[in-house]
Design goal:
- The protein is an alpha/beta fold and 696 residues long.
- Helix content is 35%, strand content 18%.
- The strands form seven sheets. The protein has a six-stranded mixed β-sheet, sandwiched between helices.
- Helix 10 crosses helix 12 and helix 12 packs across helix 13.
- The chain is globular.
């Protein structure tokens, strides 16, 4: 039997613990998105919480975990009589793998049997398995967008809908949704971020004592899991009882009008879009009050809820990092507080775990302490330093979010063109500022691919418009009904049809061929040599590349960045889905030195060759940004030959009254289109005019 690591034994992570517990008390909060670096116990703490949730009663034999007291009237295994027999089982913990299909997530209808046998056969998916439990999605930012949409729709509605060719099934799907992600691997779209109720950013403590305590407990658990869990059993039992008590108390917890107005004022003060933030903050404040043992929401509850519900809703563009200005939060709360809160007492006062000066450790769980302060066999040392470290890091991140994003919002044309000395790079490198990104036209790879779903180039996909029909190679998942009927119609007399309706056979079935859009690998090769260091030119180049990065984010591409200057070329950003990392690298890009153009092209060829082995279905698009000068060693013609067959564009950065046309010669060698830097609007027209057979 597998033994889960005890929730009460997890060191630190107070905000994450609180966010998970608020969702355990009230699933209406809408789930938790956990952002953080690898190795910070994100998965461990989620699995630990699932083990502490109260057991649930289910209808015997029901695959959808219906509650015997109030069964789902639309349950595919129903109908069930209310008040019937019950089977008690632990709350489910269901993990959604990154590579899961839509059928695996939502369930699948056997359309082949429906058409040929008239049988409505439904196989439940992971959403059904997670009903009344926990659905855990690791690396949620790597899921395809349509799966994330489906997942969040089910979480918001509490119902899963599955429809295939006019055959429809629905069932209840209420669960505690927890998603984790590493921002270095790419962000979720703001629309999807908004669908998560709460968000928490976690980082490993920089305090040596706390880090040592984490390792000490983990080694003890791995040496003897059963004995370690037994030592924490009392704290775990008290935690489970407190969750159950808070759930029962929640129905009687009141949200006074003045507190509701305070929540609305805070959300308006932070200029969040829409009203979901208000709804989530209100639900979280109610859950927090119930968790603290109160019957009415107070200022403390509103503050705790706002700290968790607003950070990810303040992003104004994709390069903004989620964060919250806590001084502004305090100011808004102070200006809208009715001023009649009762003082903290044994009935639920005290500060949230993340705000207490003792770092969240106490002798026993009570309404004014969180479960992380439960009495345990080992004292959690170093929490105060860890909490301070995490809060300081969060403040630094918030203050520098725009600075790190790779653009200076307040810089005008002259300011944005400025240069700074960069002492970190040799060769007298100078760093040009970046202007505000602008819209760019669509860049497409010619032909039709079969890559990952995205929004750039044409591709044969599982989702999109129907362009034809074909005989299925395996089990039919997406039947083309009209083509199936047309295939069966000429055979009705030999099959002995005598009444209405067609007689279908499995060999009549046809599946739909769909065409949608794919994401590509956009590899930027940027000339950072001295010839590009003119004051306005490099700022214009950086702004153009940043605009293309933003476009890549919106079109679900992977991006990479190769720069060349001096004597070598450097892979500044390996291919990644994190355009935020690309923006940060671009901002700090220095210029100066000679122009090793051949080295830059050769390095790009190496990167593309490695990516073809790693992800052969993702087609590349090469964007070379240069004035075409080559003043350092290497044969440009030979390097260009390494990129033969790769769809590409050369952005000509040469300016001035006298032009040498070197970028045009490079474009001819690469078989790419030439586009002047100041005429990006010509990209889409020029690129679409290419020979359709010239695909990567």
């Amino acid at each position: 039997m597998n033994v889960a690591y005890p929730f009460s034994a997890v060191v630190g992570l107070d905000d994450l613990k609180l966010a998970l517990l608020l969702n355990a008390v009230s699933p209406r909060v809408g789930g938790v998105l956990v952002r953080g670096e690898k190795g910070t116990a994100k998965s461990t703490i989620v699995r630990a919480l699932a083990a502490q949730l109260p057991a649930v009663d289910t209808v015997p034999g029901c695959r959808f975990a219906c509650d015997p007291a109030a069964p789902d009237p639309s349950c595919p295994d129903g109908p069930h009589e209310p008040g019937g027999p019950a089977v008690r089982r632990p709350s489910a913990l269901v993990e959604l793998p990154v590579g899961a299909s839509e059928d695996r997530l939502a369930g699948s209808l056997d359309v082949e049997r429906a058409l040929t046998e008239g049988v409505k056969a439904f196989e439940p998916g992971l959403l059904a398995a997670a009903h009344r439990g926990v659905l855990y999605v690791d690396e949620v930012n790597l899921l395809h967008d349509h799966l994330v949409d489906l997942l969040l729709d089910a979480a918001a509605l509490g119902t899963c809908y599955v429809e295939r060719e006019s055959v429809s099934v629905r069932h209840a799907a209420r669960f505690l949704l927890v998603g984790t992600m590493n921002p270095e691997e790419g962000e979720l779209r703001p629309q999807l971020l908004d669908r998560f109720g709460l968000t928490v950013e976690v980082r490993a403590s920089r305090d040596p004592k706390e880090r040592a305590e984490v390792v000490r407990r983990r080694l003890a658990f791995e040496a003897d899991p059963a004995a370690f869990a037994a030592r924490w059993q009392d704290a775990e039992t008290q935690l489970a009882e407190r969750i159950s008590a808070a759930r029962e108390r929640l129905a009687g917890t009141r949200l006074p009008d003045e507190r509701l107005e305070q929540i609305a004022a805070v959300c308006a003060g932070f200029e969040v879009d829409g009203l979901r933030a208000d709804l989530v903050t209100a639900s979280a404040a109610l859950a927090h009050a119930a968790w603290r043992g109160r019957d009415e929401v107070t200022d403390e509850d509103v503050r705790a809820a706002a700290r968790l519900s607003l950070p990810h809703r303040r992003r104004r563009d994709p390069f903004d990092a989620p964060g919250l200005d806590e001084s502004l939060l305090d100011e808004l709360l102070d200006s809208t507080s009715p001023g009649d809160d009762p003082p903290p007492d044994g009935g639920g006062g005290g500060e949230p775990p993340s705000q207490r000066r003792d770092g969240g450790q106490g002798p026993a769980p009570s309404p004014d302490t969180g479960p992380e302060q439960s009495a345990g066999p080992e004292q959690d040392t170093g929490s105060e330093q860890g909490a301070a470290s995490e809060q300081g890091a969060a403040s630094e991140r918030n203050a520098g979010s725009e600075r790190d994003a790779g653009l200076e919002r307040d810089a005008g044309p002259e300011q944005g063109a400025g240069l700074e000395q960069d002492g970190r790079h040799g060769g007298g490198g100078r760093v040009a500022s970046v202007g505000v990104p602008h819209a760019v036209p669509l860049l497409e790879v010619p032909g039709v691919g079969e890559g990952a779903a995205g929004r750039r180039s044409r591709s044969r996909t599982a989702r999109g418009r129907v362009t034809g029909a074909r005989r299925p190679a395996a089990k039919v998942r997406d039947p083309h009904v009209v083509a199936t009927l047309l295939a069966a119609a000429p055979r009705q007399r030999p099959r002995g049809r005598s009444g209405p309706g067609l007689v279908l056979r499995p060999d009549d079935l046809r599946e739909a061929v769909r065409e949608g859009r794919e994401g590509n690998l956009v590899l930027f090769v940027v000339d950072a040599s001295g010839s590009m260091a003119a004051r306005r030119r490099m700022t214009t180049v950086k702004t153009a590349v940043l605009s293309l990065l933003l476009d890549a984010y919106q079109r679900r591409d992977k991006v990479g960045l190769v720069t060349f200057r001096g004597r070598t070329a450097e892979l500044v950003l390996p291919p990644t889905s994190s355009v935020e990392a690309g923006a940060a690298r671009l901002r700090s890009l220095p210029t100066g030195g000679r122009t090793p153009l051949a080295a830059g092209l050769a390095r790009a060829a190496e990167v593309l060759r490695a990516e073809r082995l790693r992800d052969p279905a993702r087609r590349p698009l090469l964007v070379v940004v240069t004035d075409g000068r080559a003043t350092a060693g290497g044969d440009v013609d030979r390097a260009a030959g390494l990129l033969a067959g790769t769809a590409g564009i050369v952005v000509d950065c040469e300016d001035g009254p006298v032009r040498l046309g070197l970028a045009g010669r490079l474009a001819a060698r690469l078989g790419a289109r030439l586009v002047p830097l100041g005429d990006l609007d010509g990209i889409v027209r020029a690129h679409r005019g290419r020979d359709g057979g010239k695909a990567a």
